[in-house]
Amino acid sequence: MKDEIIEQYRNIPEFRSIKQKILVKILGLLLAFIPVILGLIFWMLMDWFYALAALLLSFLISGIVSSKLRHNFVPIYQREFSYTSYELAAWVIAYYFDSEVEDSDEKSF
Hints:
Elements: H1 18-45, H2 48-73, H3 85-97, H4 99-103
């Protein structure tokens, strides 16, 4: 019991730079609203049946992309938690721009 290492959970990264905050907002909004935007575009350009099919397909693809982002950028011992699109975007941006995250051994690939 004394020899066990207890993993400490890290908070979702917070940013000081305006550039990083804007990138997190853009990526979070894209992850959340791309399916709806694609559905509306298909509805305007084509029939509602194609719009519904595009909406369902884009929800599926968005879920796969979110799953891959969670797998690649969230620390291993925190993957079982539920994260919003904004929080996933914060982990991705922190991975690429924050030196503290880049230097740690928590990279999964």
